[in-house]
């Protein structure tokens, strides 16, 4: 089935645009970039249609990559139902965002570079998804981290952008370290990194080993999918262009962690402690990030914390055993979160770069298409039935309720907060009077088109794509309880959130300021993201940097290593200086030295017993 | 008889050698050196080296030392002034010399414990005939080479001297 | 027949003369005197060669001595020519002053 073509199309796009893009016209760059992704998407569709019902995985092996002793790792791709879902999301949403970028990046510098990086990202993400063993997945994992760094720091002349890129890469590295350790453990215990081999031999291993592996994989997932404590890079990543935020930090890269956990379900189901940790971390992240999102004023930051929060939901779903619910939410989240970001990008583009909601307002008349598509996304994320978010969020909450009711309640409150902060942003941006100074204009067709498509998917996608049913052969469906109570409660909370937002920002605009004044301290805490970045700086970053500078640089490198090398040099010079005095030019002293030497020789000879 | 002769001429040799080192005017050293060579020639005779004794007197005392005297005369070399000396040579040299001498003596003592005594006439094959025979048969190549060496020396000396006179 | 002279005496004499030559070489400043000390050393060596030739009852020692003499002659000739040239250039016979190869 030539699975390898799926990632290779974008790779070719990257190579062409990267090497020759400087000389191409904008149209040529567009054609190559969009064409490669669309070709990839078409090939995905063709492959999936050709593979039938995909009850069994279809694997293709290309070449042996590592052969060391009994360890044999090949470059293999595999497609099963889970892969199919991910492939469609990545290539489909990816294509839409590529098309959107034509409009958004039209006036930016480095045009070809942007599309080259975007294509490279697609290559790595598809490699990650198609991987049939942990190492190939890790290649994709690292690769998307690299592309994330390149794209966050795309405006490389702005320090905050390059700093954000560094932060993303470094924090991801911590997660990758966990992933690597997990891989080492897997190799030691299972003798192979192939998914097939590992997942079928899980039952024979001790629970302690599996729990250790699962925890380490979780560390990796926390890094890539921005969960506590490694989420700090995602809000800063908003320094990159908005299509990047939509593609990488909403729809695809950050979901890699969820995908990895779902893929390793066999390991996790046999390590209940780790699963519990997944659920708790996910829930805590969801709640925590939602609270921060309540107080942010940068529209992209609101959505960034929203992404962290929704990723927490996906982890919650996986942690309580509802892997397919987590994937379901992954799919719907891709639709409405990408749409939210692209819409925000459209707003920013319309206002010539303004990102602060306090300087927006009344835009619904000026940019109607953007407004209506964002409304679609907002109702989807708020969990309003029968739109996409409702089905997926409900599936997760139902599973959480069955696992532990307190988790359900926390999840529900978070859902309410989600609805609140999203609609807060909407009301502040699109309603009321325009508070800014720019001239809002509607975005070009290249940007509107994908918005419309995503809006349609956000509305209908939930009903249309019943993911849990589709994934049933992999992840058995939970029993239907028929209990409609939890559903109603969560919907009610959603509406309550919308209503509260309307109250604060539509009807009684003075109310938020009063509340801020009353709860001044609490507001400051939330607004400053609980000072987590500052705490990390003080506790981790500064000691490491300081230690590195003082101990390792000044102490070891300069003093010891340089000192040793220079010391050898100066010793040689010193000895040379002493020996130099032998060359006095005085013949008689030379003779004296010769005599001395011969005396020594004779002494030695005498001691050794003469010439006999 | 041999012993007395040996002792006399050995004493002359040592005294003259000492003189060579000690005298301040080079011409006195040169004369003393001639004395050394003369006494050595006698000692060679005692050892049965007739040809070499003659060669010693003719070549060494007769030619080389004359050359030395000529150069001393040409350079108008005066007595040495007692100025500062190489400290190293002084400090190191004298003890070294004594050590050196002692070691050499020690070695010579130990290496030949049962060697025969030297009698005048104990070795009869040091004649010109014997030397000549060996020289032209066994040592022909070195002989020829050495003649080339002399030629080179002549040429070198002439060249150097010529430059000096211009 | 009177008692002969022990061979070692000749060798010791040779050693003494050699040491005297070394002493002269180290302690004298006049370059011509230094040269003469070298000649003294060569003579001492000649004596020991001939002594050994007597002991081994062979004529080879004599031949060696002969060659030493020849070489000494050649060396004396060339060396004195050099001394003349150096004197011409530097007007000094002091061996310590000919030290332009210092360091």
Helix and strand element order of chain B: HHHHHH
**Class of the largest domain in chain B in CATH?**
Mainly Alpha
Output mean pLDDT of chain A: 85
Give the tally of β-strands of chain A. Answer: 2
Question: What is the fold-level CATH name, i.e. the topology of the largest domain in chain B?
Answer: Four Helix Bundle (Hemerythrin (Met), subunit A)
**Shape of chain A from CA axes?**
globular
β content of chain B, as a range? under 5%
Basic shape of chain B? globular
Structural class of chain A: mainly alpha
User: Looking at this structure, what is the CATH superfamily of the largest domain in chain B?
Assistant: NADH-ubiquinone/plastoquinone oxidoreductase chain 6, subunit NuoJ
Report the span from N to C terminus of chain B. Answer: 57 Å
The number of distinct helices of chain B, counting runs of at least 4 residues, comes to 6
Major sheet attributes of chain A? 2 strands, antiparallel
Largest sheet geometry of chain B: none
User: Biggest interface, which chains?
Assistant: B-C, 83 and 72 residues
List unreliable stretches of 5+ residues of chain A: none
Mean pLDDT across residues of chain B:
84
How would you concisely characterize the structure shown here?
The complex is a heterotrimer of chains A (612), B (166) and C (103). With 612 residues, chain A is mostly helical. Chain A is built from 25 helices and two strands.
Question: What are the key terms here?
Answer:
heterotrimer, A: 612 residues, mainly alpha, two-stranded antiparallel sheet, B: 166 residues, Four Helix Bundle (Hemerythrin (Met), subunit A), 2 domains, globular
Describe the model.
The complex is a heterotrimer of chains A (612), B (166) and C (103). By secondary structure, chain A is mainly α. Among the domains of chain A are: 271-524, no CATH class; 534-608. Chain A is built from 25 helices and two strands. Chain A is globular. The model of chain B has no long low-confidence stretch (mean pLDDT 84). Chain B is an all-alpha fold and 166 residues long. With 103 residues, chain C is mostly helical. Chain C has a domain at 29-92: Helix Hairpins (Orthogonal Bundle), CATH 1.10.287. Chain C is built from three helices and no strands. In chain C, helix 2 packs antiparallel against helix 3. Chain C is elongated.
């Amino acid at each position: 089935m030539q699975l390898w073509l799926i990632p290779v199309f974008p790779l070719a796009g990257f190579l062409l645009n990267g090497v020759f893009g400087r000389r191409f016209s904008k149209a040529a760059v567009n054609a190559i970039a969009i064409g490669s992704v669309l070709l990839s998407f078409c090939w995905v569709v063709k492959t999936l249609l050709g593979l039938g019902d995909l009850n069994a995985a279809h694997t293709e092996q290309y070449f042996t990559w590592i052969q060391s002793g009994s360890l044999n790792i090949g470059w293999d791709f595999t497609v099963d139902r889970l892969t199919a879902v991910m492939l469609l999301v990545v290539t489909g949403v990816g294509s839409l965002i590529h098309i959107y970028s034509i409009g958004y990046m039209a006036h930016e510098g480095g045009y070809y570079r942007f599309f080259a990086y975007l294509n490279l990202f697609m290559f790595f993400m598809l490699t990650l998804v198609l991987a049939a063993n942990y190492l190939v997945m890790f290649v994709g994992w690292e690769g998307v981290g690299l592309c994330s760094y390149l794209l966050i720091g795309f405006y490389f002349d702005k320090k905050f952008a390059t700093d954000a890129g560094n932060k993303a890469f470094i924090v991801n590295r911590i997660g990758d370290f966990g992933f690597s350790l997990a891989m080492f453990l897997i190799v030691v215990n299972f003798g192979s990194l192939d998914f097939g081999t590992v997942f079928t031999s899980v039952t024979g291993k001790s629970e302690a080993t599996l729990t250790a592996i699962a925890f380490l994989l979780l560390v990796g997932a926390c890094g890539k999918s921005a969960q506590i404590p490694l989420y700090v890079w995602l809000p800063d990543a908003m320094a990159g262009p908005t299509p990047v935020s939509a593609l990488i930090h909403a729809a695809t890269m950050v979901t890699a962690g969820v995908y990895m956990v779902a893929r390793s379900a066999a390991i996790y189901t046999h390590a209940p402690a780790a699963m519990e940790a997944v659920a708790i971390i996910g829930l805590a992240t969801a709640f925590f990030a939602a609270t921060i999102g309540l107080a942010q004023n940068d529209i992209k930051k609101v959505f960034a914390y929203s992404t962290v929060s929704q990723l927490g939901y996906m982890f919650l779903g996986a942690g309580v055993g509802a892997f397919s619910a987590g994937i379901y939410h992954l799919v719907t989240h891709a639709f409405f979160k990408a749409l939210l970001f692209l819409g925000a990008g459209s707003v920013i583009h319309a206002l010539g770069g303004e990102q602060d909601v306090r300087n927006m307002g009344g835009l619904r008349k000026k940019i109607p298409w953007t407004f209506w598509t964002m409304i679609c996304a907002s109702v989807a994320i708020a969990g309003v039935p029968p739109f996409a978010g409702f089905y997926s969020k409900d599936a997760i909450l139902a599973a959480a309720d069955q696992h532990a009711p307190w988790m359900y309640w926390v999840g529900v409150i978070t859902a309410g907060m989600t609805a609140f902060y999203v609609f807060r942003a909407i009301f502040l941006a699109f309603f009321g009077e325009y508070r800014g100074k720019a001239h809002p204009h509607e975005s070009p067709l290249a940007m509107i088109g994908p918005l419309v498509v995503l809006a349609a998917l956000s509305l209908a996608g939930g009903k249309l794509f019943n993911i849990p049913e589709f994934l049933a052969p992999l992840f058995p469906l939970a029993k239907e309880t028929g209990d409609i109570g939890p559903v109603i409660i969560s919907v009610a909370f959603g509406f309550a959130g919308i209503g509260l937002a309307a109250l604060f920002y539509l009807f009684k605009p003075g109310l938020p300021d009063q509340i801020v004044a009353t709860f001044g301290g609490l507001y400051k805490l939330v607004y400053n993201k609980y000072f987590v970045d500052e705490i990390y700086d003080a506790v981790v970053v500064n000691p490491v940097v300081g230690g590195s500078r003082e101990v390792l640089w000044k102490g070891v490198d300069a003093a010891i290593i340089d000192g040793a090398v220079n010391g050898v040099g100066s010793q040689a010079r010193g000895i040379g200086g002493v020996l130099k005095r032998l060359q006095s030019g005085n013949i008689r002293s030379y003779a004296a030295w010769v005599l001395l030497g011969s005396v020594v020789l004779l002494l030695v000879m005498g001691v050794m017993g003469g010439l006999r | 008889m041999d012993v007395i002769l040996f002792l006399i001429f050995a004493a002359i040799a040592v005294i003259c050698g000492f003189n060579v080192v000690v005298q301040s005017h080079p011409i006195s050293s040169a004369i003393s050196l001639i004395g050394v060579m003369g006494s050595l020639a006698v000692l060679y005779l005692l050892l049965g080296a007739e040809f070499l004794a003659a060669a010693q007197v003719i070549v060494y005392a007769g030619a080389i030392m004359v050359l030395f005297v000529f150069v001393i005369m040409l350079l108008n070399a005066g007595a040495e002034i007692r100025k500062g000396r190489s400290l190293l040579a002084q400090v190191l040299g004298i003890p070294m010399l004594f050590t050196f001498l002692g070691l050499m003596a020690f070695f010579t003592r130990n290496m030949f414990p049962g060697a025969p005594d030297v009698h005048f006439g104990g070795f009869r094959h040091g004649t010109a005939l014997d030397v000549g025979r060996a020289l032209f048969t066994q040592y022909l190549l070195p002989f020829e080479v050495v003649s080339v060496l002399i030629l080179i020396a002549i040429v070198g000396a002439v060249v150097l001297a010529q430059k000096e006179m211009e | 027949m009177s008692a002969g002279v022990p061979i070692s005496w000749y060798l010791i004499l040779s050693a003494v003369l050699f040491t005297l030559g070394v002493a002269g070489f180290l302690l004298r400043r006049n370059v011509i005197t230094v040269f003469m000390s070298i000649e003294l050393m060569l003579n001492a060596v000649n004596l020991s060669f001939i002594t050994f030739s007597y002991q081994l009852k062979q004529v080879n020692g004599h031949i060696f001595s002969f060659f030493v003499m020849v070489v000494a002659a050649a060396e004396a000739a060339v060396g004195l020519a050099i001394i003349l040239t150096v004197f011409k250039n530097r007007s000094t016979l002091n061996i310590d002053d000919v030290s332009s190869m210092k360091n």
